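Key result, reporting period 2: structure in, sequence out.
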């Protein structure tokens, strides 16, 4: 009888140990999934913030037109906005040490900016950008000259904007 009670005590101890280990594994898995989900949300937030710097120029806006009717027009972009976007793209390309690529491609972080028929505006020097501003800020030396963002490409791998194109608004 004495051996049977010792065997039951040992079995209970082993059972208790297995229960404690099982609880530990469940807690580890739960906290691990929570940590991974939190890290993914933070990464998604950074990507959304990154893309917003470019996507705010893409799309349409609704304005009140004649006779009180709403008119949908492309978002107007100035030459200064284009230079800002090009500078952001250039800083990104320098940060990732890929400024020599000259073309966006999957899965690189390179960002390419085109203006009308001019490719790789992000590679222009400060003097070239200043000349662009001088020649394209005003039309007829009176009115502000506007551009339209006609194309944006987002990487299917990195989920980041990798290409943006602006054309003169007609």
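The corresponding designed sequence is given below.
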């Amino acid at each position: 009888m004495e051996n049977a009670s010792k065997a039951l005590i040992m079995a209970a101890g082993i059972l208790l140990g297995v229960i404690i280990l099982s609880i530990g594994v469940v807690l580890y898995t739960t906290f691990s999934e929570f940590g991974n989900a939190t890290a993914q949300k933070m990464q998604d937030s950074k990507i959304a913030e990154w893309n917003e710097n470019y996507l705010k120029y893409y799309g349409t806006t609704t304005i009140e037109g004649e006779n009180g009717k709403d008119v949908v027009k492309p978002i107007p972009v100035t030459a200064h906005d284009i230079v800002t976007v090009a500078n952001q793209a250039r800083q990104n390309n320098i940060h990732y040490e890929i400024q020599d690529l000259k073309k966006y491609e999957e899965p690189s972080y390179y960002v390419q900016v085109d203006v009308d028929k001019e490719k790789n505006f992000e590679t222009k020097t400060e003097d070239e950008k200043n000349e662009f501003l001088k020649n394209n800020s005003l039309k007829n030396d009176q009115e502000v000259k506007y551009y339209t963002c006609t194309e944006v490409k987002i990487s299917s791998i990195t989920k980041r904007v990798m290409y943006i194109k602006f054309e003169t608004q007609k």
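The two ends are 99 Å apart (CA to CA). The chain has three helices and seven strands. This case is discussed further under Risks and Mitigation.
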